[in-house]
UniProtKB/TrEMBL annotation:
<feature type="transmembrane region" description="Helical">
    <location>
        <begin position="125"/>
        <end position="144"/>
    </location>
</feature>
<keyword id="KW-1133">Transmembrane helix</keyword>
<keyword id="KW-0472">Membrane</keyword>
<feature type="transmembrane region" description="Helical">
    <location>
        <begin position="27"/>
        <end position="47"/>
    </location>
</feature>
<dbReference type="InterPro" id="IPR035906">
    <property type="entry name" value="MetI-like_sf"/>
</dbReference>
<feature type="transmembrane region" description="Helical">
    <location>
        <begin position="210"/>
        <end position="231"/>
    </location>
</feature>
<feature type="domain" description="ABC transmembrane type-1">
    <location>
        <begin position="88"/>
        <end position="277"/>
    </location>
</feature>
<feature type="transmembrane region" description="Helical">
    <location>
        <begin position="156"/>
        <end position="173"/>
    </location>
</feature>
<keyword id="KW-0812">Transmembrane</keyword>
<keyword id="KW-1003">Cell membrane</keyword>
<feature type="transmembrane region" description="Helical">
    <location>
        <begin position="92"/>
        <end position="113"/>
    </location>
</feature>
<protein>
    <submittedName>
        <fullName>Carbohydrate ABC transporter membrane protein 2, CUT1 family</fullName>
    </submittedName>
</protein>
<dbReference type="Pfam" id="PF00528">
    <property type="entry name" value="BPD_transp_1"/>
</dbReference>
<dbReference type="InterPro" id="IPR000515">
    <property type="entry name" value="MetI-like"/>
</dbReference>
<dbReference type="GO" id="GO:0005886">
    <property type="term" value="C:plasma membrane"/>
</dbReference>
<feature type="transmembrane region" description="Helical">
    <location>
        <begin position="258"/>
        <end position="277"/>
    </location>
</feature>
<dbReference type="GO" id="GO:0055085">
    <property type="term" value="P:transmembrane transport"/>
</dbReference>
Length: 291
């Protein structure tokens, strides 16, 4: 009996060791897969940057993985031969205005759908959401005819007007506001607060993550918009970045370093906005009154 116990004890004591080994192996495999996936997704961006720093890339010259003689000649040529600085400024201006106006319209409409009781609220919200199923290609002709009647073709206002309201933004912020406890509204009402004060001091601070998400989506949608600016903007000095990038592929067909330099310029603002908004998303979650 004693011998059997002594023979079983080492086996029992090895069980936690084997369990830890299985956990550690699973941990290593999971991290290897995640790192491999991250490298696969990061490589196209890295190759774009390397190509933009490799002079003559595309003319029978394959860029090296680590460029031995990097140069900013492609960027210099891009900004000297074309009004690329004005193009970037146009895109930033349009994207910033679109984002600000969409935040205002989406937040106020979302508050109305979430907190104001009026007849037909659910039906109106459903009809408004149904507009998300209509593609832009269907609306191009009527929008163009309407703006032409008002004389807004080839103007910044003509490019901006169709982007001022966003059904997705209203839906996103309404869902976030629905998560805010109604007890906060009631407590503020007892203190004499009106709708504007409740909206500004209670709702907006508690939906910061949703607001930061909408900022990223609104800016990215305007920044990457190609079809509508291509239709409504005719003058070269009013062009946006996606249209200018398409022109680069036509003018510098064999000079991929210049084309990739334009791509890098188009990526930098979105990357900076993402890093900026990511901090506020985390801060909004930490400071939120919702547990």
């Amino acid at each position: 009996m004693a011998e059997s116990l002594t023979t079983r004890m080492p086996v029992a004591s090895l069980a936690p060791v084997r369990r830890r080994r299985r956990v550690s192996v699973r941990f290593v495999v999971l991290h290897v897969v995640m790192i491999a996936g991250a490298l696969i997704m990061f490589f196209p961006f890295y190759w774009t940057l390397v190509t933009s720093l490799s002079p003559g890339a595309g003319l029978g010259v394959t860029p090296e993985v680590v460029p031995t003689d990097p140069s900013l000649a492609a960027y210099q040529q891009l900004f000297t031969e074309r009004p690329f600085a004005q193009v970037v400024l146009n895109s930033i201006l349009l994207a910033a205005i679109t984002t600000i106006v969409q935040l205002f319209t989406s937040a106020t409409a979302a508050y109305a759908f979430s907190r104001l009781a009026f007849r037909g609220r659910t039906a109106v919200f459903g009809v408004y959401l149904a507009t998300m199923m209509i593609p832009l290609q269907v609306l191009i002709v009527p929008l163009f005819a309407e703006l032409k009647a008002f004389g807004l073709i080839d103007t910044y206002l003509g490019a901006l007007l169709p982007t001022f309201a966003s059904a997705f933004g209203i839906f996103l912020l309404r869902q976030a506001m629905n998560q805010v406890p109604f007890e906060l509204d009631e407590a503020a009402t007892l203190d004499g607060a009106g709708h504007f004060r409740i909206f500004w001091t209670i709702m907006l601070p508690n939906i910061r993550p949703a607001i930061a998400t909408l900022v990223v989506f609104a800016f990215m949608g305007s920044w990457n918009s190609f079809l509508w600016p291509l239709v409504v903007l005719r003058s070269p000095e009013l062009q946006t970045l996606p249209i200018a990038l398409a022109g680069l592929q036509g003018q510098y067909t064999t000079q991929w370093d210049i084309v990739m330099a334009g791509s890098v310029v188009s990526i930098i603002p979105m990357l900076a906005l993402y890093l900026f908004a990511q901090k506020y998303v985390i801060q909004g979650v930490a400071n939120s009154g919702i547990k």
